[in-house]
Amino acid sequence: MTPIKQLKNVRQRPEEGFRLWYANEYFDVIFWYEEEGGFIKGFQFCYGKPHSEKAFTWETESQSHHYVREARAQGTGILRGDAGELSLKILKQLQAAQGELPEPLMNFVIGKLLAAREDQARTTTPS
């Protein structure tokens, strides 16, 4: 697996805040900020490209984990269904492929993914 690189010339829409995008052949990690240099308001962690892609989306008020179905006509993915538990193996692969993804952002993503795993374990474990 090749190291993650920061994508340059990411389309920015002023009404949507500022975006940073990191990717390799298996992962995409996209961050949304209120403004450049501001606080993170969300991120999407995509993995399993190109054949069995899943996406974990975190925003300050919510989180979700879905399968991604490619919509070839639009050149984008459509989120569908619950993708279940995030595998620790995937998190280790992300860390191994870190490349240009800065350490603070990596730690932020890993922290949110681990918290989501814990939340899911609490809600699926019978009391």
Q: How are the secondary structure elements laid out?
A:
Elements: E1 5-6, E2 18-23, E3 27-33, E4 40-47, E5 54-59, E6 62-71, E7 76-82, H1 88-96, H2 103-124
Number of helices: 2
Terminal Cα span: 41 Å
Number of domains: 1
User: How much strand content do the residues show?
Assistant: 35-45%
Class from helix and strand fractions = alpha+beta
Q: How much is the average pLDDT? A: 82
Tell me the overall shape.
Answer: globular
Question: How many E-type strands?
Answer: 7
Order of helices and strands: EEEEEEEHH
In angstroms, what is the radius of gyration? 15 Å
Spans of at least 5 consecutive residues whose pLDDT stays below 50 are none
Describe the structure.
The protein is α+β, with helices and mostly antiparallel strands and 127 residues long. 24% of the residues lie in helices and 36% in strands. Strands 1-2-3-4-5-6-7 form a 7-stranded antiparallel beta sheet, with helices on one face.
Index terms:
127 residues, alpha+beta, seven-stranded antiparallel beta sheet, 7 strands, 24% helix, globular
Short overview:
The chain has 127 residues and is an alpha+beta fold.
